[in-house]
């Protein structure tokens, strides 16, 4: 061999770069998601839009949607099918999946369709439930998460806030319709005419957005709450443009006597209503009450649960609206907002390696459970309905 040559045991062909071969594995569904059609309270919202379905299907999930689930939100079966969902006309098939996603909780009859050890995510609407409901879920050993308890890493309730923002605005818009219907008055203010007076009980998320909507229309607003911190936060947020007060019966009665609209936006779980029947009797003829948080307990004693097909009733010449699903009046917007939340929520399950891993590794997800494998894990529910309580931290370790 000459000095100019370099010795190598490899042939020239061996040193040429080769095309890299990657192993392609067939993507299997990670879990099946059932989306049943809503059957109670004339519900019009849905949890998942076709766009969200497409993303979930691309991540390997099977989506089974009951026919006409999105119809009231202006989403067609064709749109869902083109996004990759499988459409079924059998509600039992939609309920019989690993994960069932709903707006309203399943009825007691629908619980029979759930398979054992399934995961259920829905609203709970605690004021509309009874002990037998939870016992029936327990028999199926269901893992149940309630919208009301879903928290993030900052211990905030993102879905409650999201729906509350819409509900607060919707309560004012709907009260404007009802006010015009009852006595021909416009909600708001106009040059030369006394502005409408709105009383809002509750300075939380619903109350905050009701205040903003009412101010935007030019109404005169007063807010009541028993939390000074919430009142202070609201006061600063709207630059002190609205008078606020602790809930003092004398002051509240005085404000209700002049009010055209009363918005109840304060959950009253296991508590007495704030506005008594006597207070309602002194309100102006044709005034409007919207009890937004009625599914968590009534703010107004005379409120009754109503439906979208029969949304209000009249007592003491005052219109009462007790819609527990007020945001269903604007179903497409609400469905898009809820779907955006659940898309990121479900995709986070994938990052953690599945639902069970999420429960174990994410404390905020763990705390959103009110039932784990048939065990009751929310003390507020157990105390209210006399159910045996199990600490979720002792069930998962």
By DSSP, the count of extended strands is 15
- The stretches of 5 or more residues where confidence is low (pLDDT under 50) are 23-29
CATH superfamily label of the largest domain:
NAD(P)-binding Rossmann-like Domain
If you consult CATH, what is the topology of the largest domain? Rossmann fold
Proportion of β residues?
Answer: 5-15%
Give the biggest beta sheet: 8 strands, mixed
Class by SSE composition: alpha/beta
Distance between the termini: 70 Å
Q: Give the helices and strands as they follow along the chain.
A: EHEHEHEHEHEHEHEHEHEHEEEHHHEEHH
Any idea what the CATH architecture of the largest domain is?
A: 3-Layer(aba) Sandwich
Please bin the fraction of helical residues. Answer: 25-40%
Arithmetic mean of pLDDT: 90
Radius of gyration: 27 Å
Describe the protein in words.
The chain is of the alpha/beta class and 397 residues long. The chain folds into 2 domains: 32-149 and 330-395, Rossmann fold (3-Layer(aba) Sandwich), CATH 3.40.50.720; 165-329, NAD(P)-binding Rossmann-like Domain (Rossmann fold, 3-Layer(aba) Sandwich), CATH 3.40.50.720. Helices cover 35% and strands 14% of the residues. The protein is built from 15 helices and 15 strands. It has helices at residues 50-58, 77-82, 91-95, 108-111, 131-139, 158-183, 205-216, 228-237, 249-258, 277-281, 331-352, 355-361, 363-366, 379-385, 392-395; strands at 32-35, 62-66, 86-88, 99-101, 119-122, 143-146, 197-201, 220-224, 244-245, 261-264, 288-291, 312-315, 318-321, 369-372, 375-376. It has an 8-stranded mixed beta sheet with strand order 3-2-1-4-5-6-14-15, with helices on both faces. Helix 6 packs across helix 7, helix 6 (158-183) packs antiparallel against helix 11 and helix 11 packs across helix 12 (355-361). The chain is globular and about 95 Å long. It starts with 31 loop residues before the first strand and ends with a helix.
């Amino acid at each position: 061999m000459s000095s100019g040559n370099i010795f190598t045991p490899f042939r020239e062909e061996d040193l040429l770069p080769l095309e890299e071969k990657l192993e392609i594995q067939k993507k299997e569904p990670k879990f099946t998601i059932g989306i049943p059609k809503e059957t109670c309270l004339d519900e019009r919202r849905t949890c998942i839009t076709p766009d969200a379905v497409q993303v979930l299907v691309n991540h390997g999930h099977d989506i089974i949607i009951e026919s006409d689930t999105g119809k009231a939100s202006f989403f067609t079966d064709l749109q869902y099918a083109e996004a990759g969902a499988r459409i079924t006309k059998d509600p039992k098939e939609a309920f019989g999946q690993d994960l069932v996603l709903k707006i309203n909780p399943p009825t007691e009859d629908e619980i029979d369709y759930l398979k054992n050890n399934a995961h259920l995510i829905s609203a709970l609407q605690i004021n509309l439930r009874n002990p037998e409901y939870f016992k029936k879920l327990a028999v199926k050993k269901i893992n149940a998460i309630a919208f009301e308890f879903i928290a993030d890493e900052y211990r905030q309730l993102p879905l409650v806030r999201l729906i509350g923002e819409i509900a607060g605005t919707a309560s004012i818009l709907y009260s404007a319709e009802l006010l015009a219907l009852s006595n021909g008055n416009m909600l708001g203010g106009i040059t030369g005419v006394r502005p409408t007076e709105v009383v809002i009980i509750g300075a939380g998320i619903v109350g905050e957005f009701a205040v903003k909507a009412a101010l935007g229309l030019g109404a005169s607003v007063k807010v009541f709450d028993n939390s000074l911190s919430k009142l202070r936060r609201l006061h600063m947020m709207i630059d002190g443009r609205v008078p606020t007060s602790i809930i003092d019966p004398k002051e509240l009665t005085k404000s209700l006597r002049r009010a055209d609209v009363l918005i109840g936006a304060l959950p009253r779980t296991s508590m007495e209503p704030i506005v008594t029947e006597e207070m309602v009797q002194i309100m102006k003829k044709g005034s409007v009450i919207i009890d937004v948080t009625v599914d968590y307990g009534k703010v107004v004693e005379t409120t009754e649960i109503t439906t979208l097909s029969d949304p209000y009733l009249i007592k003491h010449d005052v219109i009462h609206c007790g819609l527990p699903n007020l945001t269903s009046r604007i179903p497409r917007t609400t469905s898009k907002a809820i779907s955006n939340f659940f898309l990121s929520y479900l995709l986070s399950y994938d990052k953690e390696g599945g639902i069970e891993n999420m429960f174990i590794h994410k404390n905020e997800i763990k705390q959103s459970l009110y039932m784990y494998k048939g065990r009751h894990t929310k003390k507020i529910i157990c105390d209210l309905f006399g159910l045996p309580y199990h600490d979720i931290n002792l069930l998962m370790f």
